[in-house]
Amino acid sequence: MKISAKNTQQQLINEQIRVPQVRLIDMDGSQCGIVDTRDALLKAYDKGLDLVLMAGSSAPPVCRIMDFGKYRFEREKKEKEMRKRQVIIELKEIKFSCRIDTHDFNTKIGHAHRFLKEGNKVKVTIVFSGREMNHTNIGYELMNKIASTCDEQATVEKRPSLDGRYMTMILAPMQNKQ
Fold it and tell me: pLDDT (tens digit, 9 = 90+) per residue, 30-42?
């Protein structure tokens, strides 16, 4: 009989384990072999601990004698610590026109530098309007100019590509070498 996990966060303990036999691991980590579930439960209750299903997909399922409250607390503490260390990278977008003036270009590049310094990716978009579609080479030149001004802080993750009236490129911040 196989046990299917209802939820990865929810573990079966004590009377919730409904298989005839289990492979038992004692609280010190030593293996007790394959025993009846009822005997494993009695052994856990005698020690004042819980019988916890660790691997339900194996044959026979693996159970461990442990203090489930303490185990759950430490697992949640570890997950919380991992979430705290996790870095969320956002994708910031900056739109250009192929007829952009120097001051506007420098201002938008300054924004891109700030986004990259914060550790975010930057999506550079050039919007073509009207007859500008006939001169996409100007857009490619502008993209190369943007990439060259940001090359100290960023690497080009996605090369410039034309999609309809939009040309896009994605810049990713350089990894700090420590």
Answer: 888 888 888 888 8
